[in-house]
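ok so for the tutorial part 2 we go from a plain amino acid sequence to predicted structure tokens. step 1 is just haveing the sequence, like this:
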Amino acid sequence: MTKKKGKKDNESEIKEPVINEEQKNELYKQIKELEENLLISSAEDRIKSLNTLGDIFFQLQETDQAIQYYEKSIEENRTLGKAYTNLVKLYNIKRKEAAWAKDDEKLQHYLNKMDMLLKMTKDEIRGL
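step 2 — the prediction. this is what the tokens look like for a chain of 128 residues:
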């Protein structure tokens, strides 16, 4: 007996909720405020702002921007948390896009990024 692949198999993909125009405008307003505050924030507030910016861009499905802010957050503060988790998700999205596009160079790039993130996670756990 073989299992038929149907719609449910494809539903396991990551799907973000649809955002209406009003919500988008509010999110872009928040982005502007957060980016302005980055220049004057304390280190702890800066990390929170970077992560929030990553979250907002992730919600807007602007993957490259989200990656940029999460990577900056981790660069400035290697504490394990949501930035690591979301980066894994985003790298996976980019890896899948590269695989679908048959772009071996990009595919390898995101596999390498995932490996580096895993190494950083292990180093952080070990206290290195």
